[in-house]
Amino acid sequence: RLATELALLEAMYPDQLHFAEKAREMNYRADTNALVLRLPDGYPGIELPQVLSANAGKIDVRERLKRRIGELIKGEELLDTILAIFNELVDDVGQHGSDHAEQSEQAKALQRREPDTKATIIVWLHHLLNTNKRKLALSPASSAVSGITKPGYPGVLIYTGPANAVHEHVIELKSQNWQAFQVRFESDEEWSFAHGQGVREVEAMKDVVADVG
């Protein structure tokens, strides 16, 4: 379970997240903001990740992050939720910067591809709650697109299939009004899901992990 969760997160944060297996430490960095978690042997299960350091720029948010983590439910995959909480704390202290180079790469990722190519895209959302947006996320124009959507905080969207159809759906979604909409991973390979064809909504990150397999 941990290996699968980390593989998915490393795909979503390819240049920001690193896991040191021997020390069981996960390091996350975005601009001047940095987080280090230790994953005890009992995670995911009876133990929660431990915060070794959490800095929003020069401000230590470790204690605030520890309190928030203490409110989470044990036994589930929680790393993406913890990253979302950390980024919220970063926003709260006014230290969150924008990476224009990354945004440029994301814009390039939403260009059309040749008709016979495939694509898989993972999108991170600050949240996905609005009923109409959830319906739109589940209803790509092409039935050839399959995927997974996870509403709540944060929202996660995964789409796979013909490249043109996948990109058109992501472009349509991106045109909506979002607090944050970021393409975190793109591949020219088509994925398969445990649920089969079509787009399915799941409740939690653990369900995303299970469906990706």
TrEMBL record:
- Kindly give the InterPro entries that the UniProt entry links to this protein: Phi-like
Q: Tell me the lineage of the source organism.
A: Eukaryota, Fungi, Dikarya, Ascomycota, Pezizomycotina
Q: What is this protein called?
A: RWD domain-containing protein
Biological source species = Baudoinia panamericana (strain UAMH 10762)
PANTHER family associated with the record: RWD DOMAIN CONTAINING PROTEIN 2, RWD DOMAIN-CONTAINING PROTEIN 2B-RELATED
